[in-house]
Amino acid sequence: MTLFLSPSSTLAVRKAAEELREWGQSRQGLGVALVYGPVSAEDRLYHAKCPVEQRSVTALAGALEEIGVRWKVLDPCEPDFIMELVEYDVVLSNLHGPYGEDGRLQGLLDYLRVPYCGSGVGASAVAADKILCKRVMLALGVPTPGWHVWTGGPATWNGRPVMVKPPFGGSSVGMSLVRDPADLPSALADAAGDVGTSVLVEEYVTGTPVTVGLLELPGGSVVVFPPLATEAAGADFYDADTKLDVDSSGTVTVRAANLAPDVLDKITGDARILWDGIGLRGSARIDFILAEDGERYVLEVNSTPGMSRDSNFVVGAAMVGLTHTDVVLAMLHEALGRPPYDVPLPTPAFAGTTRAREAAVSP
């Protein structure tokens, strides 16, 4: 069983932070591949619209520079991407959505035997697939808004507003709030996209968005950050444009959630259940909606939380005394501390000789 630390476990978190900083001092020259590029629709959106200084990759690069490692941004859209990957000691991915966050990159890295930060193939695949994750939530007894899957044909309207969501991707890309049944067919078509994938249709619950970050520390303990409440002024929901905040209008307010003790226990309890139940590791963020009647519902599980300087995850870490660089150190420490492969696999060979390596095994 995972040992979870609450936000009040200040002594344990402080000790872990000191251990991480000492560990980081002994890792000068470590080779870190920072993977980032416009692969998914979500990453293409950020690449095109988000100012460079607000991007997670910019903050991560600064942290790696501060730690003193040897690092380089590797773009998976470039033809020599895989050949460059195997020249580094560990991968820190800043990809989101399909091909980066859904287990496919993780599977490639497992086969190449390159250690990487974050969850393995199975947990990444479950968390990234909104429909599959809903089914896992139900199996684990975690409350989530009512939902059904649309696979084509006539749209079903139950008389209440719904959120229409593509099954993959984050940052609310392709998501729509539908209040009028006349708008439902077009919302479904937009979410399905050109490939016509299944679409998640979820009951719209009014309330306050709440997010909870979790970070794995040395020794395998996991600190649960204080829940944060997110309020988006001038938007019906926390949509893609609001999250990007391209014009720096500051329409999003993030603050410590003022929760009754019983609600706090339920929300953090759900986060712990999902961490163990899905098999998450390294870091994760669980998004909730706290309804007006006090009930809480899990919306999504993010296995690769955003890491910009002012992201919800980083703000939560600061509330327990961890800096952005501490978080990056924790992610690198977890990746490099996993056991080596215990099955024989051929050493990948490209042009010339590739050095043999042992790295982590995904569960």
Notes on the structure:
The protein is of the alpha+beta class and 363 residues long. The protein has 12 helices and 14 strands. The chain has helices at residues 10-25, 41-49, 56-67, 81-85, 104-112, 121-128, 130-140, 184-192, 240-244, 261-278, 312-318, 324-336; strands at residues 4-5, 31-35, 70-74, 90-93, 147-150, 162-165, 176-178, 199-203, 207-216, 222-224, 228-232, 252-256, 283-291, 296-302. Strands 1, 9, 10, 11, 12, 13 and 14 form a 7-stranded mixed β-sheet that branches. A 4-stranded antiparallel β-sheet has the order 5-8-6-7, covered by helices on one side. A 3-stranded parallel β-sheet has the order 3-2-4. A hairpin with a 4-residue loop joins strand 13 (283-291) and strand 14. Helix 1 packs across helix 12 (324-336) and helix 3 (56-67) packs across helix 12. The relative contact order is 0.18. Residues 242-249 and 358-363 have low confidence and may be disordered.
